[in-house]
Amino acid sequence: MRDQILVLDTLQRIDMELSQLEKNLREYPEKISDFEKELETSKQNLENFNNKKSEVLMNKSRIEQEIAHNEEMIKKAEQKLFEIKTHKEYEALQKEIAEAKRKNSDLEEKLLEEMEKIESLESRISKEEEEFASKESEYGEQITAFKEKIEELNSLYKPKKEEKEKIVSNLSADILPIYERIKKRNGQVLALAKNEVCTGCYMSIPPQLFNEVLTLARLIQCPNCQKFLYCEEEMKSEAKTG
Question: Among 121, 151, 176, 177, which residue's beta carbon has the most beta carbons within 10 A?
Answer without folding.
Answer: 121
